[in-house]
């Protein structure tokens, strides 16, 4: 399944993903994005290196890498923009998700 509208990346996020993939010694196809039940507000994003495409993945092709979105996460991340944020000594991926109805105080979980 291919759908570029499920999730988008800012230029900074795409640059960071490319750098992470380049640092890895394995053959990396891209990042696998998912959702897990956790945190004080219910849901949290998961990310891992993807080495293969699964039949039920939604695929966002960014040219030199892919975002492979777990089918169970699609409804929760549809329309989300992924960014890379650097603030002082902290750096992390952030998600601007139009489906979120609330987020916990520490920012590690959300609900829809």
Structure description:
The chain is an alpha/beta fold. The protein contains two helices and nine strands, in the order βαββββαββββ. A four-stranded mixed β-sheet has the order 3-2-5-4, with no helix packed on it. Strands 1-6-7 form a three-stranded mixed β-sheet. The longest helix is centred in the first third of the chain and has 13 residues, at 11-23.
N→C terminal distance: 23 Å
* Major sheet summary line: 4 strands, mixed
Poorly predicted residue ranges: none
C-alpha Rg, in Å? Answer: 14 Å
Total beta-strand segments: 9
Q: How much of the sequence is in beta strands?
A: 35-45%
Q: Which structural class is indicated by helix and strand composition? A: alpha/beta
Order of helices and strands: EHEEEEHEEEE
Overall pLDDT level: 83
Name the helicity range: 10-25%
- How many alpha or pi helices? 2
| Shape label | globular
How is this fold's topology laid out?
Blueprint: E1 7-9, H1 11-23, E2 30-38, E3 42-50, E4 58-61, E5 66-69, H2 74-77, E6 80-87, E7 90-96, E8 102-103, E9 110-111
Parallel strand pairs: 1-6, 2-5
Antiparallel strand pairs: 2-3, 4-5, 6-7, 8-9
Q: What are the key terms here?
A:
single chain, 112 residues, alpha/beta, four-stranded mixed beta sheet, three-stranded mixed beta sheet, 2 helices, 9 strands, 15% helix, 43% strand
